[in-house]
Amino acid sequence: xxxxxxxxxxxxxxxxxxxxxxxxxxxxxxxxxxxxxxxxxxxxxxxxxxxxxxxxxxxxxxxxxxxxxxxxxxxxxxxxxxxxxxxxxxxxxxxxxxxxxxxxxxxxxxxxxxxxxxxxxxxxxxxxxxxxxxxxxxxxxxxxxxxxxxxxxxxxxxxxxxxxxxxxxxxxxxxxxxxxxxxxxxxxxxxxxxxxxxxxxxxxxxxxxxxxxxxxxxxxxxx
Length: 223
Hints:
The protein is α+β, with helices and mostly antiparallel strands and 223 residues long. It has two domains: 142 residues, PK beta-barrel domain-like (M1 Pyruvate Kinase, Domain 3, Beta Barrel), CATH 2.40.33.20; 53 residues, no CATH class. It is 17% helix and 29% strand. It has a seven-stranded mixed barrel with strand order 1-6-5-9-8-7-11. β3 and β4 form a beta hairpin.
């Protein structure tokens, strides 16, 4: 079922570089857009889809939300686990809503609060190919397990997926759960709250634990 259209595309070569509008982008399966800073095989945040309606309602300059794909869809209504096809071949897996963080307030004071839950939807590339501005967006019948918007639930899901006897270092845990590294400070308290069964599943890089480290291999494999 066709649900919308790709209005525009943009890439960022480096984390602090401004987004660069492009007419087409190459999607790499399991990685993201070629040449984009967020292309990462073990991240749930490979692509960001933002709604053109949000730009219009808030009068935002182009690329303010730093999205990869501007779409004419209400992204707040998209659900995790949905598979979308872009154009003839590219398929993406919707992961979770992107938090409107305080960094957006550097673009416009109060923007994060004004956006609420309308920042956009994060996704991973399932099947690669070329995406072109103007491509149709089709929602496929296939559904995959959802990832929750709550970062604590995602951290728990990552730890549950770690092979028995392995440890996930804090920085890698944040990367796999799709959260900023600053959240690592909250991990000890969260692990304590989750209970003793999680106490030894994650550790700081200099914890001294000799347990094998898990890098997240296989976490996003399709069922």
